[in-house]
Design goal:
Helices cover 32% and strands 24% of the residues. It is α+β, with helices and mostly antiparallel strands. It has a domain at 251-342. The strands form four sheets. It has a five-stranded mixed β-barrel. A five-stranded antiparallel β-sheet has the order 9-8-7-6-10. Strands 2-1-3 form a three-stranded antiparallel β-sheet, with no helix packed on it. The longest helix is centred in the last third of the chain and has 37 residues, at 306-342. The chain is elongated. InterPro entries: SNase_OB-fold_sf (IPR035437), Tudor (IPR002999).
Length: 343
C-alpha cells in the first residue's frame, strides 16, 4: 500500500521512486507519518484528497468502518490508527483559523471540514440542495447531510494524508434474490462484529475493491458463509463457483468413484489398442494413462481448482493425438509389410 492516487481529475499514480521520505502535510504544525512524498507536486495544486491504490494481494488486516450492504461497505487498514489520531490532532490545531464557505462559492466537489460527534472530519461535498449539503467523509466512509453554515474550507495541507476509508464489496457472490435479505445483513454484521478482520483483494475497479473477508487467522470467509447459509449464490462463471463445484465433487464419493472408473476405462482401452500390434511395431510400446493419480488427487493438488481440470483435458487430448499418430504408423507398417510380401 505504498502507492497513492490523486483525484478527481487526472489520476496520477506516484511512482515508488517518489515514495522516499516522511510526509509533512501540515507545514510547520505537525509531522504526519504516511509515507508518500509527492516530489515537486505542491500541496495547493491538488484538487482533492489522496486515495489508496491497493494491489491485488495477500490478506491484510482491516477493521470495518461503515456497512451499507454486502456489496457496499468501507474498511480501513488496522495498522493506521496512529495515523488517524495524528490527522485528527492536526485538524483540531488549525480548524479555528479556517474560513466558512460563502454564498457565492461553487462548492460541489470541494474538500471541506465538518464536526461530527465532537470530532472534525475531512469530507467531499457531493451535492447542494437549498443549503442541505450532502458530504462524503473520506476517513470514516459515511455520507451525511450537513448545513452549509457548519462547513469550513479544507486547507491544501490536509489534502495529502490519504483517505482512511477503502470502498469494498464481497466479490464472486450475488444476493439469492434481486436484493440482499435482512438475514444476510445480520450474518454480515455478526461476522464483522470482531475488530480483528482480514481481507484479500481479488478485483480492482475505479471505485471499489472486490474482496474476500475473513476473521483473523481463519480460512473460512464471509463470501462462502453467505452461500452455505442459503442467503447468496456464487456468481456464475466465477472462481468461487468453480472451487465450490470441485469441493462438492470431493464430498460425493459416488461422483469421484464414477469419474475415476471412467478414466480407468479410457486408460485400459488405450493400452489394449496399443498392445494388439505391439509385436509388429518396431517402436517401443507406449503405455498411456490419462492421469498418474486418482481424480481426487488431481483435483486436490491445486486449491484454485482450474489447473487440474485443464491438465486432465490436456492429457485426454494428448492421448488422442498419440493414438492417431500410432494408428498412422501402424498403417504405414502394414502397407510396408504387404509390399514386401508382394515382392
Amino acid at each position: 500500500m505504498s502507492n497513492y492516487l490523486i483525484k478527481p481529475k487526472d489520476t496520477v499514480s506516484c511512482s515508488d521512486s517518489k515514495i522516499e521520505n516522511t510526509l509533512n502535510p501540515f507545514e510547520d504544525c505537525q509531522t504526519f507519518n504516511l509515507k508518500p512524498s509527492l516530489g515537486d507536486m505542491a500541496g495547493d495544486s491538488l484538487l482533492s484528497f489522496l486515495d489508496w491504490n491497493m494491489e491485488i494481494s495477500n490478506r491484510i488486516k482491516v477493521r470495518l468502518l461503515n456497512f451499507i450492504a454486502p456489496d457496499d461497505f468501507y474498511v480501513t487498514p488496522s495498522d493506521d490508527s496512529d495515523d488517524y489520531l495524528q490527522l485528527s490532532i492536526a485538524i483540531k490545531d488549525c480548524v479555528d483559523t479556517l474560513e466558512p464557505f460563502s454564498d457565492l462559492d461553487d462548492i460541489i466537489g470541494l474538500p471541506c471540514l465538518a464536526e461530527i460527534e465532537n470530532s472534525w472530519q475531512r469530507g467531499i461535498i457531493k451535492s447542494n440542495d437549498n443549503n442541505a449539503i450532502n458530504v462524503f467523509f473520506v476517513d470514516i466512509g459515511k455520507e451525511l447531510c450537513m448545513e452549509k453554515s457548519v462547513l469550513k474550507k479544507c486547507p491544501p495541507s490536509l489534502y495529502k494524508p490519504p483517505a482512511m476509508s477503502i470502498h469494498c464489496f464481497l466479490v464472486d457472490v450475488l444476493p439469492l434474490n434481486s436484493s440482499w435479505s435482512t438475514t444476510a445483513f445480520e450474518i454480515f454484521k455478526e461476522f464483522t462484529d470482531s475488530e480483528q478482520l482480514e481481507m484479500r483483494i481479488d478485483v480492482k475497479s475505479s471505485t471499489k475493491y472486490g474482496v474476500y473477508l475473513y476473521k483473523e487467522a481463519d480460512d473460512d470467509n464471509l463470501n462462502d458463509r453467505l452461500i452455505d447459509l442459503g442467503h447468496a449464490i456464487a456468481e456464475p462463471g466465477s472462481k468461487l463457483e468453480a472451487n465450490r463445484e470441485i469441493e462438492q465433487t470431493l464430498l460425493d464419493p459416488h461422483r469421484v468413484s464414477h469419474m475415476e472408473l471412467s478414466f480407468h476405462d479410457i486408460s485400459c482401452c488405450r493400452d489394449s489398442c496399443l498392445s494388439d500390434d505391439s509385436d509388429d511395431n518396431p517402436q517401443e510400446h507406449i503405455s498411456i494413462s490419462p492421469c498418474n493419480h486418482s481424480i481426487k488427487d488431481c483435483i486436490t493438488r491445486d486449491t484454485v481448482g482450474f489447473s487440474d481440470l485443464s491438465e486432465i483435458d490436456e492429457n485426454q487430448t494428448s492421448n488422442e493425438n498419440i493414438e492417431e499418430q500410432f494408428d498412422e504408423e501402424k498403417s504405414e507398417h502394414k502397407d510396408s509389410r504387404e509390399s514386401s510380401d508382394e515382392l
